What does this fold into?
Amino acid sequence: MNFEKGMKFLFIGDASNARYTLAKGLRELGHEALVIGTSGKWRQMHVDKYIERGAGRWGAIVYLFRWLVLLPRLRGYDVVDFNGQFMMDFKPGLKRFFFDFIRKHNRYTVTSLLGIGHYYVKGCIEAKLFRSSDFNVGDKLRTNDFATERADVWLNHPEVVALGKHMAEASHLLVGTGYEYWASLHHYFPEKTRFVPLSMEVSEEPVCIQDTEGPVRFFIGIQKERDEEKGTDILWKVLQKLRDDYPDKVTLVKAENVPYDEYCRMMEGSDILVDQLYTCYAMNALIAMSKGIVAATVAIPEAYELLSEKESFPMIDLPCDEDGIYRQLEQYVLHPERLAEAKRQSVAFVQKHHHYQKVARQYVSLFEGLEKIIPNR
It folds into this structure.
């Protein structure tokens, strides 16, 4: 593969702009990149091309037609990266058809895990790899409707399971973009699994960090349909208790089901983002940290170790119980002077590990010498 002339990358499916910013980094390094968005349009994410599925039977027909028309143009790429089993809004059989066609007509195929998938669920429930997850808290399985219904689909639905296995086995590489995603893939496919951090478009301008004067401003973003899944129902309850106990020291801002750009604007000026409760930090936390906002989320030691980070641990690691969450956050209400240094460390952490240009270089390095290890299919 000739890296001097640049490579051609195709990303099918995105999540929280992670692939869009990665594509920008690749372009700035001299490569070509195209991102096709297939879900989350209500959040107005940034993609190069969005294919929307309309409602009803006619919407499904039009959606299929648009993909079939586009298919001949999805050839000749050096790397095609699929966003797991969420790459398209089809049933598993049609997804497999498109996956196999695109894989056949391009050089290398990557399946990236940016969200839930068959092997992630297996890792949570069967291998019990994690302290907490979408499906467990400690040794106990979560019993809410989301966990039980999704677990049944991802582990027992024959077509869903078959597609997950096929994509994993047929891909040249598997990429985890967060600790749990990497760990679950690595558990089942250690030879072909790689870790590439989520990418962030970080401002080159210095972030002004000031001491917190007045009330500590907490910010929480809620997707109503995923409230229980992410634990934001519990987090919001704890935040309200903090405000009631310290009305002069706490201010709350809640963004519920708002587009991405509005969400980012609402976050501005906050001191602490309270994010998710069961899985490791992701894009919400990174967005906040890049703005000099401290992230309260799941930040276990293994996540730092995967980044080879041994010195800076700026995130607030939240336990799963309400009392523990309350005590963690209360410390910053009572001692807001601690926030300034945590904010500075947060900005530095994102610049060090998640800057989109650095992540793009890491991504390109996956394919250096790959043709010597895995023959082209």
